[in-house]
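Ops channel
N.P.: pipeline sanity check, posting one input/output pair.
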């Protein structure tokens, strides 16, 4: 009974100590070994050991279908160290109802593709304009018109080229069948496209319009803040309205092979990426048909919505061009045996990094543990930003971190999940000097040293783990996802890049393992 009580005290005490220590930005001890729960003081020590850090080519490809795309990016940019990246969006189209009727002499007025980029919630960045004596044209109604302009908040790349960056957004018909929503699609795939259906110049912000009658505040018009791309009304007249009553519009299976989808892309090769949720995209067809009222054909306007939401295949195509770049050269000579002096990380299928703890380091730590009775309190990988990264592009704040060829989460997630202050990745002065990342692998290293677990390489890629919208817990830690927890991440649409110092004996900021241990004096 005494031993059990002492063990309980040990667990409670050391969990509390670990929680307090983890609050610091500099990762310290997460846990203390039970061998120190005896009389006498413990002495903390730090071991710094070089890592074999090397570049990993992901072949500039990543899975980018429905299963991965709660968000997509659109645009293009050119980073000197990494080269060009361009992102396009594909979606199937379905009818909102099948075998539709549009009425007599139906004629398309217009078609509009509506995209809602990520927008700010703070009013500080919203420009508002009010016209109190506006005349609403339908009925010449005295009204108040309020216009609000919202900047797109998620932009990665060059937001100002010649004062303000313009992106020319094009929409084309897709002429290849795209499959089903469970089809696995990778970012280097492509689907053939046909006619250009519409184009829009985009300058980085969107506008909402609200018009209310001055007499009784009745809302006369309301348009939310979004990007509206006008499409070819003749195409939709012939493709949709003229086919009313024909087999092409009779059922979903037939329709998605008849009208196979849309591609949204930008004409430019440099600028920036912006982000939007694919399931919020809308496609609206405005048309008029005969309506006889008191002997008069009024031909009112109607709206038919086409379904471009979650029922459809969504796909993001990502194009890279690394010719003549430092990243391209580094990928060509990647060395997992001796390491690479510079590490190039880029999201959206770009390169990642492998980190190997040398066998000699493992042997020396085992000696500390077995023969010198030392306990590992903390183990972190420190990676410094390389001084060559001098541009203003945003650095990643997080990394998707795993053991090589392992699909489950690192044990750090479950071991320290009780501690609300635990962070797998902590950063220091991202845009200053010194700028570095610390990756907490305490549990992983302890298992290698104390339980003879295999010493697998650590692999990091740009991105973060996705959260459950309701609980804000990691989706990968859900019981049904544990076996493949690493699949639930944002890599496919996180574009950030960074250059880090790798294995370079002449550089004091080289990649290192930092181990804090304690042993009895």
């Amino acid at each position: 009974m005494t031993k059990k009580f002492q063990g309980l005290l040990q667990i409670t005490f050391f969990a509390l100590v670990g929680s307090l220590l983890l609050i610091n930005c500099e990762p310290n001890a997460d846990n203390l070994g039970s061998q120190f729960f005896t009389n006498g003081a413990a002495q903390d020590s730090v071991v710094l050991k070089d890592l074999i850090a090397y570049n990993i080519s992901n072949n500039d490809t990543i899975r980018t279908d429905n299963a991965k795309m709660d968000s997509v990016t659109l645009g293009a940019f050119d980073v000197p160290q990494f080269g060009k990246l361009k992102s396009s969006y594909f979606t199937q189209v379905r009818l909102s109802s099948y075998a539709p009727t549009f009425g007599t002499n139906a004629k398309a007025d217009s078609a509009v593709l509506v995209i809602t980029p990520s927008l700010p919630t703070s009013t500080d960045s919203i420009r508002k304009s009010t016209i109190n004596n506006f005349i609403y044209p339908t009925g010449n109604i005295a009204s108040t018109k309020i216009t609000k302009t919202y900047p797109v908040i998620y932009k990665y790349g060059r937001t100002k080229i010649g004062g303000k960056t313009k992106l020319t957004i094009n929409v084309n018909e897709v002429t290849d069948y795209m499959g089903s929503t469970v089809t696995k699609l990778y970012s280097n795939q492509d689907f053939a496209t046909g006619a250009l259906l519409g184009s829009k110049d985009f300058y980085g912000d969107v506008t909402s319009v609200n018009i209310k009658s001055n007499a009784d505040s009745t809302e006369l018009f309301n348009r939310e803040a979004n990007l509206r791309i006008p499409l070819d009304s003749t195409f939709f007249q012939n493709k949709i309205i003229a086919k009313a009553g024909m087999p092409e519009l009779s059922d979903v299976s037939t329709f998605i092979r008849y009208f196979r989808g849309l591609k949204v892309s930008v004409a430019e090769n440099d600028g920036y990426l912006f982000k939007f949720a694919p399931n919020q995209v809308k496609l609206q067809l405005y048309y008029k048909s005969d309506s006889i009222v008191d002997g008069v054909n009024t031909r009112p306007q109607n709206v038919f919505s086409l379904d471009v939401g979650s029922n459809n295949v969504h796909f993001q195509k990502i194009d890279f061009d690394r010719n003549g770049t430092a990243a391209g050269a580094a990928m060509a000579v990647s060395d997992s045996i001796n390491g690479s002096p510079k590490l190039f990380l880029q999201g959206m299928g770009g390169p990642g990094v492998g980190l190997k703890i040398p066998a000699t380091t493992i042997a020396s730590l085992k000696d500390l543990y077995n023969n010198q009775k030392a306990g590992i309190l903390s183990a972190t990988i420190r990676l410094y930003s390389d001084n060559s990264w001098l541009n203003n592009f945003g650095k990643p704040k997080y990394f998707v971190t795993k053991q090589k060829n392992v699909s489950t989460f690192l044990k750090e997630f479950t071991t320290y999940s009780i501690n609300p202050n635990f962070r797998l990745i902590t950063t220091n002065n991202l845009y200053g000097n010194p700028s570095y990342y610390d990756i907490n692998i305490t549990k992983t290293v302890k298992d290698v040293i104390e339980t003879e677990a295999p010493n697998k390489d650590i692999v990091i890629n740009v991105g973060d783990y996705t959260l459950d919208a309701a609980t804000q817990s990691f989706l990968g830690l859900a019981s049904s996802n544990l076996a493949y927890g690493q699949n639930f991440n944002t890599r496919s649409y996180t574009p950030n890049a960074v250059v880090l110092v790798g294995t370079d004996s002449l550089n004091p900021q080289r990649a290192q393992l930092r181990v804090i241990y304690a042993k009895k004096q």
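N.P.: looks fine end to end. The radius of gyration is 29 Å.
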